[in-house]
């Protein structure tokens, strides 16, 4: 018993000072991902002139994803390459426009039409098979970690430029020409 | 009945830990007062308490991290299944693939016996599980229901499945294990007395190509596994095959052959497993096949001790076709069609030279059992009415074969009996949101067992969310276990099946308190009592299966867990249980169980160390006339894994301090009367080295 106690103590001594261990919820990490992905994206200058605010729209019924909507709200006012981030949420797309980034929540009724018809908006979602459905960036959970998937056909059609650095980090890239 | 809900006062973390750890010391020295912690132990307690105190270090601003750094952050809580575990009408434990990897469990038995409230025993034929102190020796896990992706694994001869190498699924194929404690009969019917072990297999995405794993270990153990899986749009497939071989060693069994060391190869074991699954849209087809061959060196059933010819082999084949469809937002259904086979083949070398008239001094006796079944079930889930979630289901199982045979190689037939039977069940469950923060779940299932008898199994659960961090659950349920084919009909050599056995039943009342003590820190405490009536077991005096006197039990389970986003985890649990049967503690019913899992990345995040401690208090054996000592075991696993590398290496040491300990065993009516066998010595230190590659 004593041997075990001592070995456990030694074990803890080994692991405890390693680093500060913060904990993050899935929603917080996903929100930070979305912010980080925006750093690697470029919009055409006519839709995002210098100094103009960058708007992030959250589309869909928020009740089921309260935590994510709250975490995204926390990004409001942050600076991104000289643009101030605005965050809007709603069930319908048109009243929220312009949307430089659109976060599709599961169950968003306009998902299909937005993915088919809208241009100049970077679409991101953690829904199932998002890039297969025509979305641009999908967030997927692998081994309790968030990973990204990218559909280049969709970004080309939607006139969004994603940097090669982002593509290198993606777990899956669809539509490489 | 007095309230089973824990007091509303919040225990300080330290108090819980000190209690848990002082109980740990209590395990070894029963007379030691709990407050006299040694200095060394006090240091340990303080260290742990410090480690679990909420992080004071400022949290890094997430948005300042690079994408690469974000990708390495492990997410805690808030994922869908943890959410559902919180509001689940049971005390649930979820074990993930990460945990399996990090703590180096080799079998499902090792995984489960590391969980709160579980303990195990082994008699060198099989490994057995006990839950909440209930584990009469000779019980074959027939009070726990095992499901693989919803497929019932328990066979139709013993209504059980053993969780050691006998279990038909490789541990490496498991995505997660959900342990749902308490009676599960209101949905699952028979055998779910102490809980349901729901195993979910890995998706094709988790392979996305091929995977090869090779491991070697003590006693010449070696295992090779080849798996592959791929998803294309709405279709996916997974296939896997593995082989395991263990050479065994040399053993002495002084109770049957004092001073005789067995030839090499004693305790040898082989296992082959095949798993395949195809999913096309809503349809899924699964095939699981396994064969386990085991040399039994113990001379059990009165065979010639250490004879290399004593073998006991088990095999399972399970096939399942299922469809899961969402008809609309509020309606969904699952339909399944399944078939299974269980095979048991044993050869027992006997010395018949002492018989009158004398026969051969070594003759093989063969015990053959075959179970075959098919069935179908359907389940509808409706959430069309606000505040209600209704689940209704039907299940039917036809046992087309329940064969028991026993004969000597010279042609003497002792047993040759087959049977057909069927069982069916219908159930209804409603989950009602009676208030914003309160869910009331009422469920009931009606079963017609294979004996023709009917059972009604109700379940009631009240889940109350006190605030964002605290939830209370009050649970009541009953479950039953119909006597299995073996208990009713197996007759051989001093052991008598009993067709008149009544079903065993359990009634459980439980209160659970779950508390979140900050990001990544979770406390679960429960108080319960249960009564097992008509417990089926072998009467030591006559060798006849009988319904024993009831077992009354009450107990508590406490668990504290902290997870860090770099993958570190610290989890400790204590389970105390008090069982009484005929005024005394039944055999193999420990009063206390302690588990501690500590894991963390070492230096770089590529290397991970996992330490597991398991302690089991003293256990009675031989109907309470003797006991086996308390024991504490430690396992240490080091895993090297780099996100960018296709290779993963893991090294494990089991029973790190080479503890010598015994497990209680069941009465063996076929041993000579002069032999007292009430325990088996267990293995000392072992090791395993494992290499996994993906391509």
Q: How many domains is the backbone of chain A divided into?
A: 1
Q: List the total number of helices of chain B.
A: 8
* CATH fold label of chain A: Rossmann fold
CATH homologous group name of the largest domain in chain B = TonB-dependent receptor, beta-barrel domain
SS content category of chain B: mainly beta
Percent in helix of chain B:
under 10%
* Arithmetic mean pLDDT of chain A: 82
Shape of chain B: globular
CATH fold type of the largest domain in chain B:
Maltoporin, Chain A
Features:
heterodimer; A: 177 residues; alpha/beta; eight-stranded mixed β-sheet; globular; B: 695 residues; Maltoporin, Chain A; 22-stranded antiparallel β-barrel; 8 helices; disordered N terminus
Can you walk through the features of this model?
The complex is a heterodimer of chains A (177) and B (695). Chain A is 31% helix and 25% strand. Chain A has helices at residues 2-15, 26-39, 66-73, 111-117, 152-157, 164-169, and strands spanning 41-42, 54-59, 79-80, 83-90, 101-104, 122-125, 137-142, 145-151, 161-162, 172-174. In chain A, the strands form two sheets. An eight-stranded mixed β-sheet of chain A has the order 3-4-2-5-6-7-8-10. A two-stranded antiparallel sheet of chain A has the order 1-9. In chain A, a hairpin with a 2-residue loop joins strand 3 and strand 4. In chain A, helix 2 (26-39) packs across helix 3 (66-73). Chain A starts with a helix and ends with a strand. The relative contact order of chain A is 0.15. The model of chain A is unreliable at 13-22 (pLDDT under 50). Chain B has a 22-stranded antiparallel beta barrel. In chain B, helix 1 packs antiparallel against helix 2. The longest helix of chain B is centred in the N-terminal third of the chain and has 16 residues, at 13-28. The N and C termini of chain B lie far apart (59 Å).
């Amino acid at each position: 018993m004593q041997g075990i106690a001592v070995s456990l103590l030694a074990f803890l001594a080994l692991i405890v000072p390693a680093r500060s261990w913060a904990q993050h919820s899935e929603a917080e990490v996903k929100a930070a991902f979305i912010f980080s992905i925006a750093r690697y994206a470029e919009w055409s200058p006519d839709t995002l002139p210098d100094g103009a605010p960058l708007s992030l729209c959250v589309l869909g019924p928020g009740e089921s994803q309260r935590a994510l909507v709250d975490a995204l709200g926390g990004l409001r006012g942050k600076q991104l390459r000289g643009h101030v981030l605005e965050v809007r949420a709603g069930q319908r797309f048109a009243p929220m426009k312009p949307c430089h980034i659109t976060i599709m929540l599961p169950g968003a009724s306009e998902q299909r039409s937005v993915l088919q018809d809208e241009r100049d908006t970077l679409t991101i979602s953690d829904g199932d098979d998002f890039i297969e459905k025509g979305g641009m960036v999908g967030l997927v959970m692998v081994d309790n970690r968030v990973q990204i998937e990218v559909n280049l056909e969709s970004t080309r059609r939607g006139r969004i430029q994603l940097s090669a650095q982002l593509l290198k980090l993606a777990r899956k890239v669809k539509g490489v020409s | 009945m007095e309230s089973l809900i824990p007091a509303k006062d919040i225990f300080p973390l330290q108090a819980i830990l000190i209690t848990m750890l002082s109980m740990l010391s209590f395990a070894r020295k029963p007379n030691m007062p709990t407050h006299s912690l040694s200095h060394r132990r006090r240091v340990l307690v303080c260290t742990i308490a410090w480690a679990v105190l909420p992080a004071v270090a400022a949290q890094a601003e997430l948005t300042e991290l690079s994408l690469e750094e974000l990708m390495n952050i492990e997410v805690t809580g808030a994922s869908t299944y943890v959410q559902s575990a919180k509001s689940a009408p049971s005390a649930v434990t979820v074990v993930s693939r990460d945990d399996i990897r990090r703590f180096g469990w080799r079998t499902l038995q090792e995984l489960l016996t590391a969980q709160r409230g579980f303990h195990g025993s082994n008699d060198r034929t099989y490994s057995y599980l006990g839950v909440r102190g209930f584990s009469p020796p000779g019980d074959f896990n027939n009070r726990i229901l095992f499901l693989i992706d919803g497929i019932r694994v328990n066979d139709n001869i013993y209504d059980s499945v053993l969780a050691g190498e006998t279990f038909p699924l490789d541990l490496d194929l498991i995505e997660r294990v959900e342990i749902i404690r308490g009676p599960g009969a209101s949905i699952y019917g028979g055998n779910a007395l102490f809980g349901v072990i729901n195993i979910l297999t890995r998706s094709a995405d988790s392979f996305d190509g091929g995977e090869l794993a090779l491991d070697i270990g003590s006693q010449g153990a070696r295992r090779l596994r080849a798996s592959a899986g791929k998803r294309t749009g709405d279709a996916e497939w997974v296939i896997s095959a593995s082989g395991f071989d263990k050479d065994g060693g040399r053993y002495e069994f002084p109770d049957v052959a004092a001073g005789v060391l067995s030839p090499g190869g004693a305790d040898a074991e082989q296992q082959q497993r095949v798993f395949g699954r195809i999913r096309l849209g809503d349809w899924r087809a699964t095939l699981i096949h396994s064969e386990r061959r085991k040399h039994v060196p113990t001379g059990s059933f009165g065979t010639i001790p250490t004879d290399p010819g004593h073998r006991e082999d088990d095999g399972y084949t399970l096939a399942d076709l299922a469809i899961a469809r969402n008809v609309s937002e509020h309606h969904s259904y699952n339909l399944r069609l399944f078939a299974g086979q269980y095979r048991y083949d044993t050869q027992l070398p006997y010395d018949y030279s002492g018989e009158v008239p004398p026969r051969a001094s070594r003759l093989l006796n063969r015990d053959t059992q075959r179970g075959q079944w098919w069935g179908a079930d359907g389940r509808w889930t409706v959430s069309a009415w606000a505040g209600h979630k209704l689940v209704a289901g039907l299940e039917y199982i036809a046992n087309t074969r329940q064969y028991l045979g026993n004969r000597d190689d010279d042609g003497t037939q002792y047993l040759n009996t087959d049977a057909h039977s069927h069982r069916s069940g219908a159930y209804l469950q409603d989950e009602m949101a009676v208030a914003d923060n309160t869910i009331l779940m009422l469920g009931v299932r009606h079963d017609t067992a294979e004996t023709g008898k009917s059972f009604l199994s109700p379940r009631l659960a009240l889940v109350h969310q006190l605030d964002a961090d605290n939830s209370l659950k009050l649970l009541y349920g009953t479950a039953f276990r119909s006597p299995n084919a073996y208990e009713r009909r197996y007759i051989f050599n001093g052991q008598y099946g009993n067709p008149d056995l009544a079903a065993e039943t359990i009634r459980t009342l439980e209160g659970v308190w779950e508390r979140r003590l900050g990001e990544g820190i979770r406390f679960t405490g429960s108080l319960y009592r249960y009564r097992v009536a008509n417990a089926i077991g072998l009467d030591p005096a006559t060798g006849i299966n009988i319904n024993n006197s009831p077992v009354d039990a009450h107990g508590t389970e406490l668990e504290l867990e902290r997870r860090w986003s770099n993958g570190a985890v610290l989890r400790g649990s204590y389970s105390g249980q008090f069982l009484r049967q005929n005024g005394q503690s039944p055999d193999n019913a420990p009063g206390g169980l302690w588990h501690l899992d500590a894991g963390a990345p070492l230096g770089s995040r590529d290397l991970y160390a996992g330490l597991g401690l398991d302690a089991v208090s003293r256990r009675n054996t031989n109907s309470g006339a003797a006991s086996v000592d308390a024991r504490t075991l430690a396992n240490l696993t080091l895993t090297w894994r780099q996100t960018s590398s296709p290779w993963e290496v893991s090294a494990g040491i089991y029973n790190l301090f080479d503890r010598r300990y015994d497990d209680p065993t069941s009465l063996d009516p076929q041993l000579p009367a002069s032999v007292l066998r009430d325990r088996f010595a267990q293995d000392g230190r072992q090791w395993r080295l494992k290499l996994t590659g993906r391509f």
